[in-house]
Amino acid sequence: MLLENNSVIDIDRHTKSMLPLVSRTFALGIKLLPSRLELPVRLGYLLCRIADTVEDDLALSPERKAQLLDEFLECFDDPHVADAYGERIHELTSSDDYVDLVGSTGEVFTLYRNLDVRTQAILRRWIEEMVRGMRSFVVEHPTGIRIASVPEFHQYCYYVAGTVGHLLTDLWHHHSSAVDNRVYARLLEDCEPFGEALQSVNILKDIAWDAEQENSIYVPSDLLAAQGSGHDQLLHADRRAANRAALAPLFKIAQDDIERSLRYIENLPLMAVRIRLFCVLPVLFAVATMREIEKSEAMLTPGGNVKISRTEVKALIFAASTSTLTNYSLRWLVDRVRERPFDFSRR
Length: 347
What we know:
Elements: H1 5-22, H2 24-30, H3 35-56, H4 62-74, H5 79-85, H6 96-103, H7 105-113, H8 117-140, H9 150-175, H10 181-205, H11 207-213, H12 221-226, H13 240-246, H14 248-266, H15 273-293, H16 310-323, H17 327-339
Helix pairs in contact: 1-2, 1-3, 1-7, 2-15, 3-6, 3-7, 3-8, 3-9, 4-8, 5-7, 8-9, 9-10, 10-14, 10-15, 14-15, 15-16, 15-17
């Protein structure tokens, strides 16, 4: 049953206020979207983040995570389950902002039920795919995720990020007249790597953080074994050169994802300028981050990770709004970012 307009407006404002607390980068990009796309994309992100918070929480046993992910999927069909979902979880040790988000599950699903039927179906299809994939990894890795092979690495990235590429592409097709059937077919060729690009880059920059803070290692053990190392030696100083060499295939995967992401954006019509801008920002951040990763060992150092500066982030946000309106200017900007940190004093 749909709520009165005032109640929906209040909930809408609340979910808008939560978004920058759980993703500053995404909150920046979503403001660029046309109004008809802002709400479904925001809700899609928040629903994915609720499931991700459950998957990542170290206080939850694998059995409890699987149970909660199953119950999360029940929220699509039962408003009462959705309303009670966050109230039933008392074990979360995530930051307060993420705990508050999980506690607001009922509100997010209330807005979901106010979407048109086709938009609901898009969100449900791809979020269910994601959550079922998350659940399988939780169950298969009860002592913490330990990726064994490159195919398993690809599978994990598909579930947590490739599905998002599909979700967004289906939303573009449904809500934008510029993304007709012909454009949609081209976008489908690259929508998975578009979704996965930032995920593969984030895995590389956060190797130490994930191992130390999340009890998760995404570097495939077979790549490490080929260099005479292993998961138990991932952050050892005396194995750093070998571990760095083991990352080479993952560097290639990330760069290939970025290249196909650029092709995805180039296939978006220029008249869909606000969708293009939304898509460009994370890809630019991925390009800049990979530039730093490829000359660093910080991600293999205890307590270390790789970041681009806030100055560059601000410069890229501005540049994206002026330099990505054509495919030529997009490629110019990407090539420039690959060379050195982007700022306005050294263009």
